[in-house]
Specification:
Strand order of the largest sheet: 1-4
Mean pLDDT: 93
Strand content: under 5%
Structural class: mainly alpha
Largest sheet: 2 strands, antiparallel
Shape: globular
Low-confidence stretches: 1-17
Length: about 325
């Protein structure tokens, strides 16, 4: 059967506009078929019960490490930051704080440092100089490649400005994530698990969440569907969920994490750690709403889980070399 071109384009567009529903649905599928990670519903119940009277609120940028000027330059900064926001663990001295504060200082010193034409030309040593980092960065070549990709596509499709990308979304976080995944291959965080496509979109979603947090839901951070955003499946959140009794690991996986063994990107174990975290927090969110009668956002739960994790230096997380988180 031949599908008319217009109908085909509408079908593609509809698919593109529902990335977070793809994240939720495919994460639930992984949780239902997982071999190495188990979602413990009694653990979810305990956490939800403890939160029903006092849902934790953590302020975005409570550490004071991000650039903010309430305008387009902040949007440009956040997009570059989230393009580079992955894989710090191979360097025990490096953290997200170094990246965020280093880029902030670079922008304060030179307002054109993230112009699209300049992003296309950076080298590894120049990126290190921007961050004032004295040694090669983990996955440095990939970080430079993604800076080039961001600069090129911003220049080609959005007049060089991430703010135009955001304005193109029409105040929809869902559409913004779809636009990012469509235009910027480095943000296409999906994989195949047991023959099924799984979507996670960590860095694309966190850009929407960073805008929402930075601009306090106004201006460039106003999204009429911020509740569609899921948590951001990374290293820290699964480890905190395990500590809370929400996730349980197989003995082999637990031993591997305790030994700091590298877990392959796209392996069953790695996909389950990330997808089961998303599924578990969605279930937690639903239960908190039922118990408290109040709406809680996945973004807010992610901020809380992240803040718990980074305050616990002894927390053992999985180790995967990946550009997606």
């Amino acid at each position: 059967m031949c599908i008319p071109q217009e109908a085909a384009l509408e079908e593609i567009s509809a698919c593109l506009l529902a990335p977070m529903e793809e994240v939720r649905a495919t994460s639930a599928w992984v949780a239902a078929h997982a071999s190495h990670v188990t979602v413990d519903y009694s653990g979810i119940e305990k956490v939800a019960e403890s939160m029903k009277d006092s849902i934790p609120k953590v302020e975005w940028d409570y550490e004071g490490i991000h650039y903010f000027d309430n305008g387009p330059l902040t949007v440009q900064y956040l997009f570059v930051l989230d393009a580079l926001n992955f894989c710090f663990w191979p360097d025990k001295d490096l953290s997200y704080d170094h990246l965020a504060s280093g880029l902030k200082a670079a922008l304060q010193a030179d307002k054109s440092v993230f112009d699209a034409d300049r992003l296309q030309k950076y080298t590894g040593p120049q990126l290190r100089e921007l961050l004032k980092w004295p040694k090669p960065l983990p996955l440095e070549d990939e970080r430079v490649r993604l800076m080039h990709e961001v600069g090129l596509e911003l220049e080609r499709s959005f007049d060089g400005k991430a703010s135009n990308l955001v304005e193109s979304s029409g105040k929809s976080a869902t559409k913004l994530v779809a636009l990012i995944a469509s235009h910027f291959p480095g943000f296409r965080d999906h994989t195949v698990y047991k023959g099924h496509q799984v979507f996670l979109y960590k860095r694309a979603q966190i850009f929407a969440a960073d805008l929402w947090g930075a601009f306090k839901g106004q201006g460039y951070g106003e999204f009429n569907d911020v509740s569609s955003v899921t948590i951001f499946a990374d290293y820290i959140v699964p480890a905190v969920l395990k500590q809370l009794g929400v996730l349980r690991y197989s003995s082999a996986l637990a031993t591997s994490i305790e030994a700091s063994n590298e877990i392959g990107s796209g392996s069953e174990e790695e996909v389950e750690l990330r997808a089961c975290s998303i599924y578990a927090v969605e279930k937690m969110r639903e239960l908190i709403r039922k118990k408290s009668g109040k709406q809680v956002l996945s973004v807010e739960l992610d901020l809380w889980l992240w803040s718990v994790g980074i305050q616990c230096p002894s927390l053992q997380h999985h180790r995967t070399l990946s550009i997606y988180y």
